[in-house]
C-alpha cells in the first residue's frame, strides 16, 4: 500500500494548459485532495525552492518538499536538511568558467541570485516578465563584490549556465572531475550537487522521519533530475512527454498527475479489500 507520494513540479504537477498558462490543473487539484483525504501523504520533489508552489498557487499546497533537487529538504514545516556551498567553492567553480561563454549562478537559501560575473545575457533571461515567478531577488553584485560585503555568505545551489550545448556539457564534465555531481535542471544549465545529494537522498530523509519503507512510496516525474528517485523507488510514474531515460525507467507512463493518483488510490483500495479477506 502506498503511504507517501513524491511529485515533481515543472512538467509534472505544473504544466501548460490549453490557454498557455503554466498552472496546476483542476483535475490534478481534485485528485490531490482525494489522495490526501484517503490518508496518503503527498509531497514534492523539485529543482525549485521549497516555497515556490505555495507562494505561486496557494498556501493549501504547503507540502513537505525536497527542493533544489535534494539540496534543501523540509518536512512538517521545518528544515531537516541543507547542502551548503561556501564562497570558496563558488570561486573555485567560477575559475573553471574563466574565458568561457558561460555564467555561474549562485543561489542563497533565501532564493537570492548572485550572477558571479554579472553577464547581462544571462541576467536578462531571468528577468524576463514572461517567466514563471520564482520570488527571487537578483543581487546587484558580482561574486567578488558579494564576498567583500558578506564574507560568511553560503549558497544552497551553484548552477553553471551556458547557451552553447557542447560547451555546457564540457564544463559539466570538468566540474564532475572536481568532485561534483552535475545535474541538468535547465535546458541551458547544470546544477552542481554534492556527491550523494539528489532527489532520492531527500526522499529517504523524509521517509525516515515518517518511518515509511521505500516500497510504500510512489514517485511522479518527467525530467532527467528525477532519475535517481526513479531508480530508488519501484512504484514510479512518468508523464507521457518525459525525458527518454525517465520513460525507460518508469513502471507506469501516464497522461498527468491526476491519472497517476487515481491509479494509486485504486491499488490502495484493492490492497485494503484483500487485507480484509
From TrEMBL:
Gene Ontology molecular-function annotations: magnesium ion binding; phosphatase activity
Transmembrane residue ranges: none
Keywords for this protein: Hydrolase
InterPro entries linked: HAD-like_sf, HAD_sf
GO CC, one annotated term: cytosol
Pfam families found in the cross-reference section: Hydrolase_3 (PF08282)
The keyword Cell inner membrane is assigned to this record: no
Keyword Chaperone among record annotations: no
PANTHER family for this protein: HAD SUPERFAMILY HYDROLASE-LIKE, TYPE 3, PHOSPHOSERINE PHOSPHATASE
Protein name as it appears in the record: HAD hydrolase family protein
Species for this entry: Holdemania massiliensis
Amino acid at each position: 500500500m502506498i503511504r507517501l507520494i513524491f511529485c515533481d513540479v515543472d512538467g509534472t504537477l505544473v504544466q501548460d494548459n490549453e490557454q498557455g498558462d503554466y498552472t496546476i490543473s483542476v483535475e490534478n487539484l481534485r485528485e490531490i485532495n482525494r489522495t490526501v483525504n484517503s490518508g496518503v501523504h503527498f509531497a514534492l520533489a523539485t529543482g525549485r525552492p521549497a516555497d515556490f508552489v505555495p507562494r505561486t498557487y496557494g498556501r493549501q499546497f504547503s507540502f513537505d518538499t525536497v527542493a533544489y533537487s535534494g539540496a534543501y529538504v523540509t518536512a512538517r514545516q521545518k528544515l531537516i536538511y541543507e547542502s551548503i556551498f561556501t564562497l570558496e567553492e563558488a570561486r573555485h567553480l567560477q575559475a573553471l568558467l574563466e574565458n568561457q561563454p558561460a555564467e555561474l549562478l549562485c543561489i542563497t537559501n533565501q532564493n537570492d541570485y548572485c550572477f558571479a560575473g554579472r553577464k547581462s545575457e544571462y541576467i536578462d533571461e531571468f528577468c524576463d516578465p514572461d517567466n514563471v515567478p520564482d520570488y527571487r531577488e537578483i543581487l546587484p553584485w558580482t561574486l567578488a563584490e558579494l564576498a567583500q560585503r558578506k564574507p560568511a555568505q553560503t549558497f544552497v545551489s551553484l548552477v553553471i549556465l551556458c547557451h552553447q550545448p557542447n560547451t555546457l556539457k564540457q564544463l559539466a564534465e570538468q566540474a564532475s572531475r572536481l568532485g561534483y555531481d552535475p545535474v541538468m535542471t535547465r535546458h541551458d544549465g547544470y546544477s552542481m550537487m554534492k556527491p550523494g545529494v539528489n532527489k532520492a537522498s531527500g526522499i529517504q530523509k523524509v521517509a525516515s522521519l515518517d518511518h515509511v519503507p521505500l516500497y510504500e512510496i510512489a514517485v511522479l516525474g518527467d525530467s532527467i533530475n528525477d532519475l535517481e528517485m526513479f531508480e530508488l523507488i519501484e512504484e514510479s510514474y512518468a508523464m507521457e512527454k518525459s525525458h527518454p531515460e525517465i520513460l525507460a525507467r518508469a513502471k507506469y507512463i501516464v497522461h498527468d498527475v491526476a491519472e497517476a493518483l487515481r491509479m494509486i488510490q485504486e491499488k490502495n483500495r484493492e490492497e485494503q479489500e484483500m487485507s480484509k479477506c
